[in-house]
Design a protein that fits this description.
By secondary structure, the protein is mainly α. It contains four helices and no strands.
């Protein structure tokens, strides 16, 4: 939480295939419960994660021309 407060971008990662993708949402929910703002958790799951993986030119947010799975 201190890093997020200092403006450091957070990213949630998955140890695939050892972890199920649901664990990402659970991890984010746990950190929000501990005090992280929900917007920061969403960013850690979406644009920050895409930027960290080097694929933010294609995915990570809902915008025209980007790939997305919107369910």
């Amino acid at each position: 939480l201190a890093l997020a407060s200092a403006g450091v971008p957070l990213v949630f990662a998955l140890e695939a295939p050892a972890r199920h993708p649901t664990s990402l949402r659970v991890s984010a929910a746990m950190v929000v419960r501990a005090g992280l703002e929900s917007g920061a958790a969403w960013a850690a799951l979406t644009p920050n994660a895409a930027r960290a993986a080097g694929v933010d030119a294609r995915v990570g947010r809902l915008a025209k021309g980007l790939d997305a799975d919107f369910v």
